[in-house]
């Protein structure tokens, strides 16, 4: 029996929407909110991201954790909130695949948040990060000792 | 989810959806266990393997060792899939104990004629009991099985079902070989394949063929090899027989063999009966084009 994304999606669809509504209750404290339309986009984006990275998702799903991990970042603003969540969601699945399942969801999200904040809210470093650096940041909880620390120094000197 | 054909033909669309959803719920539970709840997503390939394992466990739960990959979903449509799955796991655990004991028994009673691929296979099967992860990959066979049996195990069989079928047949073949003298077997095997120790050949096949030949010639098993004269006699014996008559003839020969080695083992009787049919087909194929020299060695 082969598993298809469509059936898993049917199974999860109702559950996901409820989760996203719950997310709003938390993120609203930080001035961040998803409209019904944005929730639909996020769900569609999740489906496509999973498909393009060859993954399937069950249970709670990652959107809720993504919101909880990033909603208090100083670099998130309401105007770009939904778009950024979509990109982070896509990046999460890509990095999950690239790290060969070696990092748990929480470890990966933690590392992503550190890099995101370190980059001033830019996704540039997250998109190009190598596996070794990501492991290191996930384990140490800091960019110290990685090339990102060097980048920060250069940026400071330039400024 | 693409259902296999028997399911599509047996179930209505609504019933198919019920089965799919129940299976996906089970897959979700298994995924959670597999990742220890630390990852909400997994690669599709891994999900497919977990699903294959679920199907296998449910299959052995319903059909036992007769499971060959086909499930009558209608029969279990309203049952609790998680319970069926758990019963399958318990069934596998029970069969693992039996299988390991059988494997040990085979290792303790190896045939007097040696074959490297049999030894390698048994060595690899020794690791199977530790490597076999029936909780998540029950359908897999994590070992190398190179030694060929006289009749191959059906490819549809998976996991512990395949391994047990293999071990049971190997034990039956080896038990048969233990009834003959080492030198008599060596003489036949040397004619069959001079490097019978090193090559991937089955030891049972040439021995049982010659034993049947000897029985048909009313000679004992002290010398299993057939002389040129005896081969000619066997060629004459089959020359004017129809396919059905050859089968009967081989069956009688096989019965004589079993009587002479005082066999009362049901598995041995079944195996020689199945092999006898294959032997009869080979005889029917060659009797007009070169005689029995390649069959009775």
Short description:
The complex is a heterodimer of chains A (159) and B (297). Chain A is mainly α.
Characterise this structure:
Chain A contains eight helices and one strand. With 159 residues, chain A is an all-alpha fold. Chain A folds into two domains: 1-79; 99-159, no CATH class. The radius of gyration of chain A is 16 Å and the shape is globular. The model of chain A has no long low-confidence stretch (mean pLDDT 86). Among the domains of chain B are: 5-85, no CATH class; 181-297, no CATH class. Chain B has helices at 5-10, 13-34, 44-63, 73-76, 81-108, 116-131, 159-177, 182-192, 204-216, 228-239, 243-260, 266-286; one strand at 41-43. Chain B starts with a helix and ends in an 11-residue tail after the last helix. The interface between A and B is medium-sized, with 25 and 28 residues. β1 of chain A pairs antiparallel with β1 (41-43) of chain B.
Give the helix level of chain A as a range of percent: 55-70%
Report the count of strand segments of chain A: 1
Q: Number of helical segments of chain B? A: 12
- Class from helix and strand fractions of chain A: mainly alpha
- Specify the structural class of chain B: mainly alpha
- How are helices and strands ordered from N to C of chain B? HHEHHHHHHHHHH
Question: What's the total helix number of chain A?
Answer: 8
Shape of chain B: elongated
Largest sheet of chain B: none
As a whole number of angstroms, the C-alpha radius of gyration of chain B is 24 Å
Distance between the termini of chain B: 53 Å
Unreliable spans of chain A are none
Q: Which range does the strand content of chain A fall in?
A: under 5%
Low-confidence stretches of chain B: 1-5
What is the total number of structural domains of chain A? 2
């Amino acid at each position: 029996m082969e598993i298809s994304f469509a059936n898993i999606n049917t199974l999860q669809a109702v559950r996901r929407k409820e989760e996203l509504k719950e997310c709003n209750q938390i993120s609203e404290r930080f001035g961040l909110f998803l409209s019904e339309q944005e929730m639909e986009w996020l769900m569609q984006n999740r489906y496509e991201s999973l498909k393009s990275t060859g993954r399937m998702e069950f249970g709670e799903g990652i959107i809720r954790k993504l919101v909880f991990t990033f909603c208090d970042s100083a670099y998130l603003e309401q105007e770009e909130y939904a778009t950024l969540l979509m990109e982070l969601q896509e990046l999460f699945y890509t990095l999950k695949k690239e790290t060969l399942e070696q990092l748990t969801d929480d470890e990966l999200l933690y590392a992503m948040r550190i890099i995101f904040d370190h980059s001033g809210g830019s996704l540039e470093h997250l998109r190009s990060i190598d596996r070794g650096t990501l492991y290191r940041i996930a384990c140490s909880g800091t960019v110290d000792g990685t090339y990102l620390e060097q980048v920060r120094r250069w940026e400071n000197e330039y400024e | 989810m693409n259902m296999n054909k028997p399911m599509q033909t047996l179930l209505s669309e609504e019933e198919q959806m019920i089965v799919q959803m129940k299976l996906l719920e089970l897959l979700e539970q298994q995924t959670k266990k597999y990742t220890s709840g630390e990852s909400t997503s997994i690669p599709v390939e891994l999900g497919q393997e977990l699903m294959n394992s679920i199907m296998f466990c449910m299959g052995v739960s319903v059909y036992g060792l007769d499971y060959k990959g086909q499930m009558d979903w209608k029969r279990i449509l309203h049952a609790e899939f998680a319970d069926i799955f758990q019963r399958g796991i318990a069934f596998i655990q029970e069969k693992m104990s039996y299988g390991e004991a059988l494997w040990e028994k085979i290792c303790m009673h190896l045939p007097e004629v040696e074959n490297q691929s049999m030894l390698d296979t048994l060595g690899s099967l020794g690791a199977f009991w530790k490597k076999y992860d029936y909780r998540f990959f029950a359908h897999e066979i994590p070992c190398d099985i190179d030694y060929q049996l006289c009749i191959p195990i059906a490819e549809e069989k998976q996991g512990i079902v395949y391994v047990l079928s293999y071990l049971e047949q190997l034990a039956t073949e080896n038990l048969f070989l233990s009834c003959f003298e080492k030198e008599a077997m060596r003489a036949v095997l040397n004619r069959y394949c001079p490097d019978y120790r090193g090559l991937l050949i089955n030891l049972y096949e040439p021995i049982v063929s010659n034993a049947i030949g000897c029985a048909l010639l009313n000679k004992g098993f002290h010398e299993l090899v057939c002389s040129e004269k005896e081969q000619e006699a066997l060629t004459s014996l089959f020359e004017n027989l129809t396919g059905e008559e050859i089968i009967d003839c081989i069956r009688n020969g096989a019965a004589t063999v079993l009587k002479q080695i005082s066999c009362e083992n049901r598995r041995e009787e079944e195996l020689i009966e199945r092999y006898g049919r294959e032997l009869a087909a080979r005889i029917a194929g060659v009797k007009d084009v070169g005689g029995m020299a390649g069959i009775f060695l």
